[in-house]
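Lab notes, practical 5.
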Amino acid sequence: MNRREFLKRGGVAASLPLTLQALPSGCATSSSVALPARQSGHLSWLEGKQPNVKAGTTWGQPWSQGELAPDQALRLIASDGQTIPLQSWPTAYWPDGSVKWTAHAVPAGVTLGQQFRVEKGSGPAPAPHHPVRVSVANSTIEVDTGLVTYSIPKTGEYLIRAMSRGGAVVAKNARMVGLVQDEVDPSAAVSRVSSFQSRTDRVTVEQEGPVRAVLKLEGVHQIEAGKEWLPFTLRLYFYSGAESLRVSHSFVFDGDDQKDFIRGLGLRFDVVQRDELYDRHVRFAGENDGLWAESPKGITGLRRDPGKAVRAAQIAGRKTPPLNEWEPGVADRLHWVPVWNDFTLSQLSANGFAIKKRTKAGHAWINADQGHRASGAAYVGGASGGVLFGMRDFWQLHPVQIDIRNAGLDEAEATLWFWSPEAPPMEVRFYHDGLGQETHEQQLDALRITYEDYEPGFGTAHGVARTTDFVLCVLAATPSRSATVDWAREIRTPGQVVAAPEDILKTGVFGGLWSLPDRSSAQKKQIEDRLAWQLDYYHQQVNQRHWYGFWDYGDVMHTYDVDRHVWRYDIGGYAWDNSELSPDLWLWYSFLRSGDAQSFRLAEAMTRHNRDVDIYHLGRFKGLGTRHNVQHWGCSAKQLRISTAAYRRFHYFLTGDDRTGDVLNEVVDAGEALTRVDPTRKLSNREPVPGPERMQVGTDWGSVASNWLTAWERTGDDRYRQRLVDAMRTIGGHPDGFFAGTYGFDPETKKLLAPADREAQVSHLSAVFGLVEINAELIQLLDVPEYKTAWLRYCRLYNASDEEKQAAVGRAFGTHLEAPHSRLTAYAAAQGKDSALAKRAWKEFRLPQEFALQWTGERQAILDVKGPQVLNPVVEAPWLSTNDSSQWGLAAIQNLALIGNDL
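Output from the prediction step:
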């Protein structure tokens, strides 16, 4: 709509404080931001330069088919020409057995520079100065990075028994802790709060150096009363020469949402204190480079001055001069100076944190300071050593908290809460009572107004997960203020190495459906500018709309409410997007073609969210994901199209992330879940299909195919290739191919079963959940001519004229999502080198309907909306939805790659 129509439909007067802005001033475009240099043939840092803290790094790198043999040695050449110690391992293979993706790790402390490269070499890579050593004994595993030694029990109450440096134990007894409450109703007479702690049941050594070692711990959390719940997987990452340890903790919620209300979840450990009270230090990193730094026994600001050198030493975190060098009248009165034992930083929302301290339990807390968004890093220890620790995405995953207790005793206790005990108990109950929707007919009728697919018992969080990443740095001294800030930066935004976009493109990974940005013509520039604008817009919306929180961070909203000037956060299926229509693919392809850090971080946060929260990891719905809803688990449509590996494999291959790899493993056989949950169970007019399960040829098959393809790539196991080939032959051998709509599926044999001939069945959703992208890879990797023919037929006909459809499949089915499907037309045009078809594709893409909103005139209106119409000032594009952005973005990217010369 234009501005006049918008104001009229929204029921607001033209005098309201709404201002129209054109593209450049409404939101800055990515093209106007200086991007880090990405040189072909080289690797670089995502944000442009190597972090000041060099803590050890892991990344992924692609290779062209036939380029790298599995036994080929690799070496890393830094920007100054030095050969750097490197640990490499394959993460995917091409059909010919050559390596498709590798992951690499480098030691801590090495300087790679701005541009560096991995190349084929002869013989092993040089050994690191301090190789990681893993020693396995009967009851413990010891890991030595060269600077720090860790003792990890194979079973029991502690994750890490001791962390030692220079022969002395600095920290010990690391464990996960929590609180659970059995009642949250304010009218309840009493509620009981129980504490729980992690229990390790199994430890697996996944890697043992020499550059990187990884230990995988599996266990449960044990409540005081003996109940076991919240199964967890935790990985410990050790790098050679590192004084830091990375911890990745994932748990699955398996409680009763009516009586198991989490009051706190955290990582706790004890720090040995050997310094005098005035030589001990507590640090909290605030926003940007802000730092709160004090001592349990402060010696500044006293009525008597101990001396400038003494004060300067404490402020800097250094050991103070001997007492006999202090000014008279201070040292012999230190016992009158209070000892502050306890410190807390709490961030209960995305927009404010507070720091407080007290002398001891039973006495008042004193407010120390406040701020906006804390970095989530802290230090406790003394001039002779301590622990700097922190949590990634701290304020984004609120409510969070850092507690330091007993800083004035021989052992301090530190807890990094990833659910703050000062926050209200965690609520995962379904948000309404069903509204009388008892039958499928009632549920389908309700769907017509709120877009929510409800069914009793389906809106459960039982089986969803969340992952939190921590860093523990075992230091030999209190870090300087600048070093503390550097560590805080590294914890909140870990350094990430990436390959140049042109190098990824030429390897042929991910199906070749993208190209590098090209503004060589006015038309291409117009498309590129909108692609860049869309990314900036969503980056801005995340912050302005406060899309943060423990269960929410990483996701975006589905549809906008023009009248309230908010996204429809409270309306059924219009709220959280949950990967609907593939925003994940849009963001990852955007990064591949640009190398842009902003698109990477948006895509990474989305993957880290949806791989955990939007998918079930145990229980009845295991292997399935949940359609969009007010709550991420709220919709009764539990589907393969959300849990598909198609959305997660980018993150795994680009980063080597093990948690993402776990989830890719979980969904390999997710198709079996269709036996437990039929996505079409509410439809009364379903035609029968052979076999025990129904598999829709679009959303279901595309998801299963991506799961099997990823498993085949990662393992080289031929059984997955055979599953793919058999299914592709079944579809390709059917007279209707992709127009058959629904096939049968046998979960035992993993075979598709051809349905009887019937009228063509076409869904506008079949191709918009990764089928286009996965089919491009299947056709690239597997020679099944009949499948390719069937797919190209579908691509040509979907947007064809009614006459062409009638002649080909017997009916003129309606065309929906015409602009997104233009990329199917483009694919067929590129495969057949058909210029006329390419021109048709561009015409479909440019149509000013639905997704193809013209980027001209008032249709590009972007509004600044201010009070009193909204709570906070926001920028809005009232005509845009996430469906629009995702599918328009994918169509634009793929059309430019496939038929750019025909524009």
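Observations recorded by the TA: The radius of gyration is 29 Å. The first helix runs from residue 3 to 9.
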